[in-house]
Amino acid sequence: MKKKYDYVIVGGGLFGGVFAWHATRRGKTCLVLEKRGQLGGNLYCEEIEGIPVHRFGAHIFHTSDQKVWDFVNNLVEFNRFTNSPMANYHGEMYNMPFNMNTFNRLWGIRTPAEAEAMIEKQRGAVDGEPANLEEQAIRLVGTDLYQKLVKGYTEKQWGRDCRDLPAFIIRRLPVRFTYDNNYFNDKYQGIPVGGYNGLIKVLFEGCDFRFETDFNENREAYRALGDKVLYTGTLDSLYDYRFGRLEYRSLRFEDEVLDEENYQGVAVVNYTDRETPFTRIIEHKHFDFGKQPKTVITREYPAEWKEGDEPYYPVNDEKNQSLYQKYQELAEAEEGMLFGGRLAEYRYYDMDKVIASAFRLVEKEWQK
Ligand SMILES: Cc1cc2nc3c(=O)[nH]c(=O)nc-3n(C[C@H](O)[C@H](O)[C@H](O)COP(=O)(O)OP(=O)(O)OC[C@H]3O[C@@H](n4cnc5c(N)ncnc54)[C@H](O)[C@@H]3O)c2cc1C
């Protein structure tokens, strides 16, 4: 007997959406089960004071993948947002990523040669193999950039002193000897006009939905609704944590609505001193070039992750990776189940990489 749906899609995020779009185009029927009260996963935007607020962290789309860029641009219009964050160190404002504007503000120098010479001189403060993150960072960018723009921010993120953190955490700190404040090196970047919800809506068009529905609370019954299941949740929860829990790093967000039009003049300001408890302030209207009379800001606090918190960033250390592998072996043995996305793959994935990964699954699924 044919089941009611061709696919039961667990998770209404970007991965599930790209798969659903391709499935419905092929005349397949999809039921989407979503734990939360709305679609979009971490891309979801909540409208406050007419401003699309990036509810689960600031999201800037950037890619050099032509196929991915064409795909999303054929679905919705993107604006020309360019990420040019600022850093605030005890009230001193610096351009990010480290570039000639930063060096000019820091040292009053004007030419790339002067900047290179200054960094080279300061790198000499550490010789031999860097023993910890502090030494590694000084080796990469010198003492001034480290003290003002790396140290406090990194210590807040990890909740530990840079001297107590291993050197390998920072492999590269990009330094640019041009007056260019564009954070990303990718060929394309932007944000869908009005936020991400429009993109999500188009991706899931034609599907049926059940919200506030956790697949893992009634697996057999939900599996019985479709021929196949695409699962985009965490693997440890799928197997009732039988080998233990995968760990994550978390974030806490605190919103404030302000009765002024323009609070900080830019979407992202990093607070790089150790004393300010938050790491960033996001002013959402700048993602969308908003002109609303009020503004919404979000302070981001690094947070220890504990059971029940949102799993934001996977901790891809040896312990967690080998735990993940055990779960992955169980998943590989499943019949009629497909897997994908940042949670099921236990990887930090930018949006363009998630879309490319969904394309690969689509190809596998329909080229058989
Ligand atoms: C703080 C932060 C900032 C980011 N910023 C950027 C950025 O600037 N640029 C960029 O390119 N990328 C960014 N990313 C990455 C981006 O969020 C991901 O690439 C994208 O969201 C992954 O989509 P996904 O569908 O795999 O996962 P998700 O968006 O997490 O979607 C998975 C969905 O599945 C649901 N779900 C899980 N388990 C179950 C279950 N058992 N039953 C039912 N539903 C379930 C979840 O509720 C969720 O809605 C950022 C990520 C974070 C954490």
What does this structure look like?
The chain is α/β, with parallel strands linked by helices. The protein has 11 helices and 16 strands. Strands 7-6-12-13-14-11-15 form a 7-stranded mixed β-sheet. A hairpin with a 2-residue loop joins β6 and β7 (92-95). The longest helix is centred in the middle third of the chain and has 16 residues, at 143-158. The protein binds flavin-adenine dinucleotide (FAD). Flavin-adenine dinucleotide binds next to α1 and α11.
Topology (SSEs and partners):
Blueprint: E1 5-10, H1 14-25, E2 30-33, E3 45-48, E4 51-54, E5 61-63, H2 66-75, E6 86-89, E7 92-95, H3 100-107, H4 112-123, H5 133-141, H6 143-158, E8 188-190, H7 197-203, E9 208-210, H8 219-223, E10 226-231, H9 235-238, E11 248-258, E12 268-271, E13 280-283, E14 295-303, E15 313-314, H10 318-332, E16 337-339, H11 351-366
Parallel strand pairs: 1-2, 1-10, 2-9, 6-12, 10-16
Antiparallel strand pairs: 3-4, 5-8, 6-7, 11-14, 11-15, 12-13, 13-14
Helix pairs in contact: 1-11, 4-5, 5-6
The protein binds flavin-adenine dinucleotide.
